[in-house]
Amino acid sequence: MKARIKIMLKNGVLDPQGEAIKHALNNIGFESVTGVRQGKVIELDIDGSDKSQVRSEIEHMCNKMLANTVIENFEIELL
Amino acid sequence: MKAAVIVFPGSNCDRDLSVALEIVGFEVSKIWHKDPELEKGIDLVAIPGGFSFGDYLRVGAIAANSPICKSIVSHGERGGYIMGICNGFQILTETGLLPGALLRNSGLKYICKTVDLKVETTDSIFTQKFSLSNVIKIPIAHHDGNYNANANDIERMRDQDLIAFRYCDNPNGSIEDIAGVLSSNRRVLGMMPHPERAFEKAHGNSDGMTFFKGLVEAVATT
Hints:
- The complex is a heterodimer of chains A (79) and B (222).
- In chain A, 35% of the residues lie in helices and 27% in strands.
- Chain A is of the alpha+beta class and 79 residues long.
- Chain A has one domain (2-78): Mth169, Chain: A (2-Layer Sandwich), CATH 3.30.1280.
- The radius of gyration of chain A is 16 Å and the shape is elongated.
- With 222 residues, chain B is an alpha/beta fold.
- Chain B has a single domain (2-221), classed as Class I glutamine amidotransferase (GATase) domain (Rossmann fold).
- Helix content of chain B is 25%, strand content 26%.
- Chain B contains 5 helices and 11 strands, in the order E-H-E-E-H-E-H-E-E-E-E-H-E-E-E-H.
- Chain B has helices spanning 14-24, 67-77, 87-95, 151-159, 207-221; strands at residues 2-7, 27-32, 44-47, 81-85, 101-103, 111-119, 135-142, 146-148, 163-167, 178-182, 188-191.
- Chain B has a 9-stranded mixed β-sheet, sandwiched between helices. A two-stranded antiparallel ribbon of chain B has the order 5-8.
- Classes of the chains: A alpha+beta (79), B alpha/beta (222).
- Chain A binds chain B through residues 9, 13-14, 16-17, 20, 64-66, 68, 70-71, and chain B through 57-58, 61-62, 64-65, 93-94, 99-101, 103-108, 146, 148-150, 173.
């Protein structure tokens, strides 16, 4: 099975990289952009056929290592 | 007195930290991150600066899941002394031994310079040799030193006097100008600045020596 995990900084946590991207977009003429948040996407190949079991295993991975829940949120998508 | 300096792939301040600890009187052993256990009788675990695992995924995240870290967390939970400098601080927040997290500097640049720090508490083995509100000069060298913690943690740290150092002129966007924090039992310290880079005359400034001298005296008497 394939899974995709999207990890984003929580709302309210300053994202300096997103801010820099926003300024750069504004500077090259995309003045309509008023906010940018940058995150990351992790794709996994994972053994297992029971979707709910795989999902809960990935949640465990996210809480233990893939995301830092002090500052980040994650979303899991099974493909 | 025994200190263990933990070495990860990408650690680069392990030697400096070992030298500083040895000069003040610790018997230092370097411990590779794949070792399953700390040896017995370790008084202080010291996690050095650097770029463990190339800062992949998140600073400190992969190191915090290294085999040795279980043993470090148990050492902390038993009330053992632990200090983490720079990447060591990032690793300690990732293990949960210290609250909060370190984010990319607000100005996005890697910063390498000496900064003024204010000593915010003298109630810890790491800061007991200083006077309250002492201003000391210690170098920083980081890209991800922007300390962040949720409002509850910040309030708790303020109430329990767990903020060890603040920047006089905030270089990286850290919340409340925080440069270093203590655990609730005051035995774990994380700080972004590098006292091991300012502890002898040849460094141009020896404010870091006060830090290490205090540390060794305190460990000797406990």
